[in-house]
Amino acid sequence: MPERVRGVSLLISLGFLIVAFALGYWQLVAAADLLQRSTNPRIVEEDRRIIRGEILDRNGEVLASSEHVGEIVQRNYPYPPLAHVVGYASTRHGKAGLEAAFDPILRGSQGTDWESTLRNALLPTERQGSDIVLTIDLRLQRIADEVLGDRSGAIVALDVGTGEVLALASHPSFDPNTLDERWEQLAADPSRPFVNRALDGQYVPGSVFKIITAGAALDLGIAQPDERHRHEGDLIVEGFRIRNTNHPQLTELTFAEEFAWSCNPAFALTGLSLGFGEHIDFNKFGPPQAYVWEPRDVTASVDRFREYADRFGIGKPVPFDLATAAGRISSGDTMTAVGLASTAFGQGDLQVTPLQMALVAATVPNGGHMPVPYLVSESRGPDGHVSVRRTGPPGRQVIRSTTASQLNQMMKLSVETAYARPAQIPGIAVGGKTGTAEVGQSGTPHAWFVGYAPADRSGVAVAVIMENRGSGTEFAAPAGQRVLEAAMRLGY
Amino acid sequence: MGRGWRLVELSLLVYPVGLLAVAFATLNIVRGTFWETSDVRIVVLFGALLLLLHVFLSARLGAADQALLPIVGMLVALGLIAVNRLEPSLAPRQALWIVLGCAALVGTALVLPRIDWLARYRYTWASAGILLLLATMVFGVDPNASGTRLWLGFGGLYFQPSEIMKVVMVTFFASYLAEKGVLISHAPLRIGRVVLPPLPYLAPLAAMWALSMALLIWQRDLGAALLFYLVFLALLYAGTGRPYVGVGLIFLIVGAIVAYTLFDHVQLRARIWLDPWPEAQEAAYQIVQGLTAFAAGGIMGSGLGYGYAEYVPAVHTDFVLAALGEELGLIGTLAVVALYLALMHRAFRIALRAPSTFAMLLAAGLGATLGLQAIIILGGNLRLIPITGITLPFLSYGGSSILVNFIMVGLLLRVSAESPSSGGNRA
Fold it and tell me: Which of A3, A4, A8 to probe the B interface (max B CBs under 10 A)?
């Protein structure tokens, strides 16, 4: 009988062993998954009690702050138009923008130094997050928001040499202070106010894309800025007519002028010729009949074209403090001669984001070196001392510096004499390129402008897109001019 | 029996008192209060109570097991910490039940002339127990709106008769099997080639068991029904050695299927056990929140007072370990499991040294009851089995449970004190 009593005891001990394993499973193995579920009230509970750090612009202007309202902490956003950058931290609707991307620092769970980490770990109720300081200049941001007005569009302004983002506007926007009350309405709004158009808006670039095509041609040595060509007729590529309508006043142009006057046949031909390793024979253009492109295998040109688009960051997300869209470029296998010709002047199966285009613009005055953009320059512990200071990560050389300086001259020419004239700032060298991107048969085109001032490494680059607004020269270039001029006035 | 220094016990008792004092101090710091007088009172009372029990045992049951009281003290201290953390207003009430429990322990150990005296009146106990259950069916109340009328009220204090039935059943089974176990195991009933248990000898046992099971299922106290059944099987096996356990497990499965088809609430329990996630906000809210609390604890826990176990419904009764799991972590919960394991092993150690077959089966039955009860509720908390509303011995808030558990410990101490080989003061 004692053996059987021992048996019972062993059996029950086995039960406890299983219980111990189950404890290990739920408290260790499955814990992370369980805590992420929406059924975990701790996330919301803790957020309600944490005094989140402040978000400040580069001059210390408050963009987001927290204050106690009784037991709970309320988040205030003094400059609501910046909602797409600053984001929101709502107990009901989650987090977005920098509030989400820098959540661990703002909550103080990822301490900025071991001392504050330890303090937060030991005294969780008194938790105080760290502040973050942005590269945004609220004064320039105000101008950008004013310039966009109530139209849909986006403006990105950044420091050419360092990649610091000085202004980032996306309209329409929303007020994060009244998010909870207006959520349903905002979510259903057909103008999609939650989309950050500067980072996630994917647009056909139109003529601003010619910067990349020109950069490739100059870099490969198949075109020179001062080469003169005659242009009096259209270009026909495998039955597809590319009209020569952008410069009726000029019949003989240099490559630089073709760029400044945005000549579509010239850039279609440039794109088609990228892979042939020889100078482009423009001289077959002649009055009065159209020039018919003699069919050739364009595989090598497609490869060159895609290689440069890739170097300029088209078709992949920009590494950034916030999530960015990739844009789109048709893949090499499927690109035909017609596709290559139209993509080369910025139409066709091609989409870019305003941030990507601002970086393309910045590459030119920066000696062919594309900076890496960033928004958050430092974080400060609750006691105010700077604990982490970031500088721009190193960028990469996209085109030769000689190519960049040729391209710079061409973009300055565009502002001085051609379509980008509205971007002129008296006494300051400005480079720029406009675009009027066709969006289907009936729609009013998107107005584009990308440019920079002053036209060297110390400058500020800007990209402007105004949805369905019309001509880039008429609408986007003056907007870009106002932002660049304000940046100059502010001493950038 | 008799006097004896119990130094091992005395030195071990430092731990539960120290644990309670440190934990209450922590809670006061977290809450920003400076030693609530009721908290101080509870700590002092607890220390005094354990010391009094120690003195009593030294004076009257010097040879009794020296580890039982410290283990129980640790569990009771954890229970007080949990109730103070989760429902501070109930802490004095819990303390009162502990005082009553200690009194019952002393009473049990003193009143019995000899442990075998219990066996002599087994039908009296059984009848009284059944009567109590019947009375609950007629006069039962539901003082805390749990949905089941399992309590009998006496002037503001409520008592759950199914708790005392645990002791009654174990005593009855132990005494019956001690007397008839040999007969049962050696006189099988043969019908042709089929060997059946000797039904005439098993009849009183089966009748007693069936009656109480019927009552419990009638009252929807499924956890208690499962506990009784498992303890019954354990004692039947220990007492007769016949492999009725296999038959018993088949009955358990059949019973579960019958209960599933008959009762809606059983179907609901089974459904949320198998897949709680689709109903995480409704029917499965409690189990999902309980598991999340365990997960939130991780290894080290959030620290006492820093968890969010309030989100688990009935956390201070059914899910008390989830609250401890969140705030004390895996380290804390494994320590609690180790305490139950130690308690159960102590009981079986006492059983193996018991002076008589009845005492052995009694001690083993009490140990099995404590151990299985902990496993059933912890298994429910951890989604190993469907959740049932029984208490975690000594830890959950609940008066009758505490009282009866102390009576069980009193019986174990008494058996160990009568043990011929208990060898004086050694633990």
Answer: A8
